Amino acid sequence: MKALIAAGGNARRLRPITYTINKHLIPLANKPMIFFAIEHIVEAGIQEIFININPGEKELQQYVGDGGRWGARITYVEQTGGPKGVAHIIKNAEHFMRGEPFLFHLGDNIVLGDLRRFAQRFAEENLDALFAFARVPDPQRFGVPVIEHGKLVRIEEKPAVPKTDLAQTGIYFYNDTVFEAVNSIEPSSRGEYEISDANTFLIQAGRRVGWEEITGWWKDTGKPEDLLEGNQLLLNEVLSKEAINNGMIGPNVKIQGRVQIGKNTKVWDNVLIRGPVSIGENAMIKNSYIGPYTSIGNNCVIDNTEIEHSVIMDYAEVRAGTRIVDSIIGKNAIIESSKNSLPLGHKLVIGDNSQVEV
């Protein structure tokens, strides 16, 4: 079995962060989110992976590489003409995927647990397709299955009035019959080839289609609040297995709960850290409180600040003199206290699509 990971798109809802970084490289629990998809795929016994990318993409290849670190082989496939919908990703990769069944995984979806039981059922029942559904509080944002008398009859894309609280997740198993589907459907009113339409085509064509509900949790990281919740879920999972302190801890430092600290990081002078928290390498934390569900990247400086339930990316410097919560702070960002310079007041340089509370 092969795997195809979707890692293109524009991620408009995550701007301005995604102006300068591929969405799938945004760190959750201090690891690029696409790494979690790759790890789950390899755990399912799949070594040949293809990653769909935007035309001209270079950054993602540099971070992910050839797959050697996971014992896999990774090939990059540019999406001809740019993003045209999820089903178009499969259509675009047909040359690479034909001949063997494959797992299609959206690179910005994170899930608890492994995918082996899905792969096993798909193979044992000789299915043409297998979909994973999850219960969500806002199904109108997703493809929603219509199930009548226990039978899956179609998938409705972002219905105004969902018939269930189940949502189609970004995990699909297919064989070659999917190419008939993606080559038969027409673009939707949004101008995109919808994966819901392709899946409905398979169902209504009488193909052998199965589905399962995900146990545990699943998260689509489409909005800033989704990223923060994904970071929270992953910190709970990752640090329950491993919470290693490789840093240098000074006097007057209290560490409570599950906290991971990277190499050469200094935690100094009146610091309280309450886990789950992940701190990268070569960082400096002093005179600060770091609260639960916070991840701090490499080479960051946190001074005289309280931070909780936030993602701080590499090389950020935060000397806010106040409390920061529910925030995503990008690479090389600098946050200073307004009391450090005159005239007093909030001095802001705010880019497009930013959100600030003062």
Can you walk through the features of this model?
The protein is an alpha/beta fold. It folds into 2 domains: 2-223, Spore Coat Polysaccharide Biosynthesis Protein SpsA, Chain A; 242-340, UDP N-Acetylglucosamine Acyltransferase, domain 1 (3 Solenoid). The chain contains 9 helices and 29 strands. It has helices at residues 17-20, 33-43, 59-64, 86-92, 94-97, 116-124, 177-182, 195-204, 224-241, and strands spanning 2-6, 27-28, 31-32, 48-53, 73-78, 102-106, 109-111, 129-135, 143-148, 151-157, 166-174, 209-213, 218-220, 248-249, 253-256, 259-261, 266-268, 271-274, 277-279, 284-286, 289-290, 294-296, 301-303, 306-308, 311-312, 317-319, 323-325, 328-329, 334-336. 41% of the residues are buried. The mean pLDDT is 87.
Question: What is the structure about, briefly put?
Answer:
The chain is an alpha/beta fold and 358 residues long. It has 9 helices and 29 strands. It folds into 2 domains: 2-223, Spore Coat Polysaccharide Biosynthesis Protein SpsA, Chain A, CATH 3.90.550; 242-340, Hexapeptide repeat proteins (UDP N-Acetylglucosamine Acyltransferase, domain 1, 3 Solenoid).
Characteristics of this structure?
2 domains; 9 helices; 358 residues; G1P_thy_trans_l; six-stranded parallel beta sheet; elongated; UDP N-Acetylglucosamine Acyltransferase, domain 1; 29 strands; seven-stranded mixed beta sheet; NTP_transferase_dom; Glucose-1-phosphate thymidylyltransferase; 31% strand; alpha/beta; transferase; Spore Coat Polysaccharide Biosynthesis Protein SpsA, Chain A; 21% helix
